[in-house]
Every structure is written in structure tokens, then in C-alpha cells.
# Entry
Amino acid sequence: MSTRSAPPPLVWGVVGPGAIARVFAESLLASGAGRVGRVCGRSMDSAASFCEEYGGVPAQDPEELIADPEVQALYVATPHSAHFEAAETALRAGKAVLCEKPLTTSPAETERLLETARSVETPLVEAWMYRTHPQIAFVLEQVRSGSLGRLRRIEARFGFAAPFDEGHRLFSPALGGGAILDIGGYPVSFALAVASAAGNSLAPELREAEGELAPNGVDVEARSILRFENHLEAHLQVAITNELGCGGRVVGAHGAIELEDPFLPGSERHGRSARLWIETDAGRREARLESPHDCFALEAFEVSHLIAKRSLEARPPMVGHAETLSIARLLDSWRNDVGAHT
# Structure
């Protein structure tokens, strides 16, 4: 995504100063996309530690942070179960929200947040950061152009091996744990973007969902198929206890594109270089695409743009509101079909 003629950097509030918020703050500072103004964590000590490293002033609670007139936008990086409350409070205060995925833990809460954003005319963005990288725009353009022919199959996987710990957010039902909620939206959103570029709707049929559950009922690995129009299928796989890596493949009648790291360019959180392979009748060739900034910085630039233009949702190829709701519904169906604890 282009950052030319970017609006002035924003002052950000950060709720949930954990590992991913540190990546976001590092990206703000490195790119000039903004700066940290206020920080709220589980304790004043955690917020103060974050501020010592990245700037800003600790806040006692989200309400104090959001009430600060200097703060223009809120970055929500709490455990999933706390996303809704923080995001809704910020929106009602007129503060733009960039919320880590998933936006909420249920379709009902997701729909309510989207309605709130519309009613108060304030930007709300679900932070599927990988969608800002040029490789995604490239793939979607190849699909739209018809160079691959009629699409036949989409494949996407994302999985890592974490030791089971019932107290960790990944495995906690109360905190919105499980492979599907935590990372299932990556392959789902990839499939939706590609299928949509080929003219399909954002409401595919979820089929053949299966998975493995932890002793406490949380899903630790899952597979499913999304069936779109014209017999197009997306085969998806996620895991939090199995090192699947990440990958994506788009197959058409006249060619295919394989992405090495669709969700983590260069296999790094600050990665800017991506590699993919294009297959045609003439053979297989490698392509490399570079981004001007990492994906987290590009998200911040987009929120700045939305505020400046008084727009409510991110521009393609980032995830817009209709797709956010589709993702929420599909993840909920997937979890229900594998019998995950809710």
C-alpha cells in the first residue's frame, strides 16, 4: 500500500502492552507513522515498562487513556475476550480503532462494533496486517486479470507448535483461545480475498470441518473447506500445537501462484520482502516483492488516512467491514463444527 502524501503521524493509545504491541510500537517509531501517547496494561508497572521503551505515559485504565484529548487512535492488543469493550469505549469517544484479530470472539459482538462505528462515524479496522503487503495486491490483480484462468482451488495454512498450558491465553476458553479464533482468520481471510477477486461472494459454505481438541475443549488444530460459487474450493488448515508453517497457493486453469509466507512476509514480524512463485505453461519462475514499510506500519498509515479522509473502513486489499463480519461468522461456524469449547 502506498504511503505517498501520507497525513501527519497520529498519537496512539495502546491497550494491552504485550509482545504484539511492542512490534506495533517499534514499527511506529521506525516508520514515522505515529508515536505512542498513552498506554494501559494489566498493571501500572507493565504500562510504565512499555513507556520506558517506546514513549508515552501510563494510564490507570482504558477510560483514562481514551479520555486523553491528545490520543487520536487506539491500538487494541489485549487478549481476544477484551477486544470488544475496549474498542466500543474508544469508538463512542470518537477515537479511531485498530483492533488486533479477531475483532471480537463472536459474530454478534462483531456486528455490534461495526454498527457502532457506523453510528458514531468513526474508523474501525480489524488488524489483518498481512493484507497491507504488496504481495497480496499482486496476487489479487493476477486473479482479477484472468491470467490464471478460472480459479479451481485455494490452499492456505498457518500453524505453530506451542506447549499446552491451560493458563496461557492460547489455550484459555475464557480468553478466546484456540487455533481457529487465534489464527484461523488468516487462511479464511486469504481465501475470501482471492475468491472475491474472482467475482465470488463473501458467504461461502463451510464444509468438512474437523479438528483436534485439548483436554479443556479448546481446539488446537483444525481443517475445513470453503465452497464458493462455480465449484471453487478453499482448503484451510490451522494449528497451535503443530508446526505447519504458513503458506498459500492459488490454482487456476492456466497457472498457479504459491506464496512462501503469505501471513508473515520474510518469516519476520517486521518483514518487508516476500517471495512467491508463478507457474504457467512456460514453467515456474520466482518473484520477489518489497514493501516500503513493514505491515504494522502500513496499518498505522492507513488509519491516519481514514481519519484525514473521514472514512470508516480500510481500503482494499485490507479487510473492510463486510469481510470482517464474514470472517467472524465463518470462524464461529468452524468452531461449532469441530466442537470447540465456547
About this structure: The longest helix spans residues 321-338. The chain has two domains: 10-130+296-319, 131-293+326-338. Residues 131-293+326-338 form a domain with the Dihydrodipicolinate Reductase; domain 2 fold (CATH 3.30.360.10). The chain is about 35% helix and 30% strand.
